[in-house]
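Deliverable D4.2, example record:
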Amino acid sequence: MISVSEIPQRRMARTAKLASLPLGVAGRATVGFGRRMTGKSAEDVAADLQARTAEQLFTVLGELKGGAMKLGQALSVFEAALPEESAAPYREALTKLQEAAPPMPFETVRKVLDEQFGRSWSERFQSFDETPAAAASIGQVHRAVWSDGRDVAVKLQYPGAGPALMNDLTQLSRLAWMFARLSPGLEVKPLLAEMRERVLEELDYTLEATSHREFAEAFDGDPDIAIPRVVASAPKAIVSEWMDGTPLSRIIADGTQAERDAAGSHLALLHYCAPARAGLLHADPHPGNFRMLADGRLGVVDFGAVARLPGGSPEPLGRLTRLALDGDSEAVMTVLREQGFLRPGVEVAAPSVMEYLGPILDPLRGPTFSFSRPWMREQASRLSDPRREEARVGRLFNLPPAYLLIHRVTLGSIAVLCQLGATAPYRSLAERWQPGFAALGE
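Output generated by the structure prediction step:
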């Protein structure tokens, strides 16, 4: 196995792995040309190429850590959206990465602790488990007992993680064209640019500890959401209270329907209420960051990626959603243009826009909605299949920078709800917590 201390030295091998992606895509494109020559329609060939590209993309990303793994997590919406044969390799590889602790030697762990907390760091702990308890893309977690007897999680950043992450993102940005094979409307370059900013923040554990403390204060004593408290922090280390629970990945794999519904409802609640209560949005919605506690609360960890929304979720977003639900197409078009979703000069008929938006709003039409992989796949097919009118309309839309992270996090959260197959009170949460949503008609 590769030691984490070797991350910078393995950069050439990682680059070669990523470079294999466009070669595979080019090969499949050649095969696609051959199929057109034998009579298959261009649309059928494009759909086949899209599915095959997704399979290779997710398999390669799943085998890598660092920036490549982070991009895989950011694109996890496709896991629920793709046919099972394409999604399975990616889901399996990513699950392994989330659950398998990397082999950072304890002598390296000790050096990190010496640097962050001083050579007498061991006096702060009653005990320290040398075996990693969990892995992340830029660090690993050890279980320990703090000097006052509390069980704690000690999160340590991998030596060399920063350069490896930035190199991955540089390489991936050069391959941005390839992601158009997944979805003609998928703008990967802005996503990678935004991820680069987020990565720089995530590498600063002092900043993460500040966000963590703000979340913990906002949800202190909450009956539905549990945030462990920060005990100590340093630029590359965070000590927080240990949190036991059932990982969402396990509930996704074999949970009962009641467990799925509870997890999904709590996850949706966090997504809607955190901007209003904490001025923050948890921006890394993958199953490894959530667990259900024995008392029924949703436990939340890892606050390296957050969106700072001091005024709460943007009011125009809630207003736009409600106008679309109410069928007010003229008002919808006005808000879309005001907010930059439709650029000046872009001509598209209002009925086409309403038809494009309609199924996306299904979770908000009734008191509850049952999320599922089939529903997610239908939306992905509807919005990205070049043979469909909705895909053509979707390509006319722009995603303003101010909404980019919110959009990605929302998609990621919905993807997890679909993986859970949860039924959740999505509309009532929007009515209570989303500014601009309920004010129009209630």
